[in-house]
């Protein structure tokens, strides 16, 4: 049942190429026209919405953060991302012109279910992105887009996260298509790049030993920081969450630009810092700013572990360790850059002799508020 792996988590990390491929399967025709028939929501209603609010918790909320960058860029619709348990208690502004998207692997997270019910009471249109057929959240939503990651057993979410990002991107492209914000050819190109992602994840998995040796060497570490910018920011937060929940190590993810506003004071000799570097082929200023951030922490004694694109020659000089991810579009990078961070947390927890599938104090689905 663990497919020859020592833990469900390792198996699920290795299921990720399939999870992304299956979530993409059958959603578009040969010309790249998306047909999300299963949505059960009138396309006209989707055309008329003026804002999107995405509600989720934990890892699913980081998928929502990633989605915001893509959906706003492609559709020019404002997207707010909020933790489900914060949303309900602050008198949020939602109404019939709002599309409330919930993201949940289990479909049973009580915080998200209650937030969904609240949004419905306010008259919002609701859409669930969910991995569990027939669970409460999709059942109570107007529309549903299933992720096809297959059952996720390990408490720490991995393949569901990648499938969630994939599904939110399909939604974003579908809305862009409905609202005429992207040309059909552009949508087709993005879908073609997404279709290449599974093979690129496979390439990363084949080089997992590079990450596992680092994790073993770092097994006595007590604190790790993660930095990212743009879509790399939620990836940094997800890398930190994986390490907290699996290896019980204090970890924090920051927006790299926030460093000088406080967190840089944490850096002293030997502090490990992971940096998720955007593509040098994307927005040049963003890449060079992150490279400067690596320099800044390195100059203050940090140990710098860098996730960078193949062929990015700028990072080598300031990095103690570099893991290369294959080239892809900036917006698709999270689907690759998070994978070494998942492997790192899993391997470090394993090296400490911890139960990676069932970390202490946690449940797979949080069905209480
Ligand atoms: O089932 P859900 O996606 O609604 O669960 C949300 C969170 O509880 C979940 O992602 C949690 O943070 C995981 N333990 C993360 O690995």
Give a verbal description of the structure.
With 369 residues, this protein is of the alpha/beta class. It has helices at 8-14, 16-24, 43-48, 58-75, 84-87, 110-121, 136-139, 159-178, 184-206, 208-217, 232-247, 284-299, 334-351, and strands at residues 51-56, 79-83, 98-104, 125-130, 143-146, 223-228, 250-255, 272-276, 303-309, 321-325. Strands 2-1-3-4-5 form a five-stranded parallel β-sheet, with helices on both faces. Strand 1 (51-56), helix 4 (58-75) and strand 2 form a beta-alpha-beta unit. Helix 4 (58-75) runs parallel beside helix 8 (159-178), helix 9 packs parallel to helix 13 (334-351) and helix 10 crosses helix 13. The protein is globular and about 55 Å long. The mean pLDDT is 95. Residues 57-60, 104-106, 109, 112, 155-157, 245, 362, 365-366 line the site of 5-amino-5-deoxy-1-O-phosphono-D-mannitol. 5-amino-5-deoxy-1-O-phosphono-D-mannitol (M6R) binds next to helix 4.
């Amino acid at each position: 049942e663990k497919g020859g792996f020592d833990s469900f988590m390792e198996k699920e990390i290795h299921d990720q190429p399939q999870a992304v491929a299956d979530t993409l399967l059958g959603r578009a025709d040969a010309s790249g026209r998306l047909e999300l028939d299963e949505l059960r929501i009138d396309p006209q209603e989707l055309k008329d919405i003026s804002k999107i609010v995405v509600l989720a918790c934990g890892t699913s909320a980081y998928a929502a953060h990633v989605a915001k960058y893509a959906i706003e860029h492609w559709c020019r619709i404002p997207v707010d991302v909020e933790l489900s348990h914060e949303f309900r208690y602050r008198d949020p502004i939602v109404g019939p012109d709002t599309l409330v998207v919930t993201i949940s692997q289990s479909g049973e997270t009580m915080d998200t279910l209650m937030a969904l019910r609240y949004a419905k009471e306010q008259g919002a249109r609701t859409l669930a992105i969910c991995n569990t057929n027939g669970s409460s959240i999709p059942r109570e939503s107007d529309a549903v887009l299933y992720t096809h990651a297959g059952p996720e057993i390990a408490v720490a979410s991995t393949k569901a996260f990648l499938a969630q990002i994939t599904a939110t991107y399909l939604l974003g492209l579908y809305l862009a298509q409905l609202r005429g914000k992207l040309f059909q050819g552009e949508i087709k190109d993005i879908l073609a790049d997404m279709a290449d992602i599974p093979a690129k994840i496979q390439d990363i998995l084949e080089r997992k030993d590079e990450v596992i040796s680092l994790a073993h060497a770092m097994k006595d570490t007590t604190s790790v920081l993660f930095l990212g910018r743009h879509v790399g920011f939620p990836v940094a937060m997800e890398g930190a969450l994986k390490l907290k929940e699996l290896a019980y190590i204090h970890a924090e993810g920051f927006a790299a630009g926030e460093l000088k506003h406080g967190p840089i004071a944490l850096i002293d000799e030997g502090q490990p810092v992971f940096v998720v570097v955007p593509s040098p082929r994307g927005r040049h200023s963003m890449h060079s700013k992150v490279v400067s951030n690596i320099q800044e922490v390195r100059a203050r004694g940090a140990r710098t572990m860098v996730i960078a694109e193949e062929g990015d020659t700028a990072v080598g000089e300031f990095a103690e360790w570099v893991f290369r991810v294959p080239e892809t579009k900036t917006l698709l990078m999270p689907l690759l850059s998070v994978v070494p961070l998942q492997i790192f947390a899993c391997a470090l927890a394993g090296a400490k002799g911890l139960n990676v599938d069932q970390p202490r104090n946690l449940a797979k689905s949080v069905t209480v508020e």
